[in-house]
Amino acid sequence: MSKRKARRKIHRHRKKHWLLRREILLLILALSLLGTGWYLKEKISFYYAMNFKKFPHKKLNNSEFETQRINKIIASNTDKVFGIDLSHYQQKEDIQWDSLSIANQSIPIQFVVLRATMGNDDGDKHFSHFWEIAKKNQLIRGAYHFYRADEDPVVQANNYLNVVKLNSGDILPILDIEKIPKYYKKEQLITNLKIWLKIVENSYGEKPIIYTYYHYYKDYLQEDFSDYPLWLANYNDVEQPSQSDTWKIWQFSEKGIVHGINTKVDLNMYNGGLWSMKHSITLD
Fold it and tell me: Same domain for 113 and 218?
């Protein structure tokens, strides 16, 4: 036997042995499901999809680091609820609402948060369409206001309330605060944010969710708003967005690749299961 044929035979043997070991491991995991329930089933579904059922996106890709980081977060939280947020940056024709999923289609997208209004009088041009179609596709939906610190908080609150009509089962109202003008004092920012939050809380009878970045929350908001539901954005290679704060939602990537969408989107994870989400951050 030639050396080339010998090497091919060894390679085939190793490949066959490796595939057999992988199949055995999957069988062991499947059998153990009988004793450990739904959580392990989700783990197995994720493992199987990532190794045996790959569906690379036809148009989108990420760096190896970002891909591994996203997959690591999903793998550690397969029992959680995953969602996305959208705005007019995503075109209507880019979204197939009936097939939204991640991790090679093993993890369904179960909630979507939409930008509704911005500042005193601006609104997202796709909000009404996205709002209606999300409901038709049985997604838990939410709507957020992009807050502009140098505009009137009363007018901004009324802008949100005039556009957004939340119903039972929808996510609590959401305030997105990310920026502060250089000339603006922190004390004035806090005062005005409290005005917006109070007006919206009085309208719905529930404290709104605050969305912001990890460091922005630490620098400006933590001291005065720790009793509000928190949605944190943190795109670093971490196991959770904050070790010391109680958070409800984590936006863990702004480069999410979702089956059913032809543009990258923000990926979010609710810190719990579906029952918990419906009884924690949605309207009765």
Answer: yes
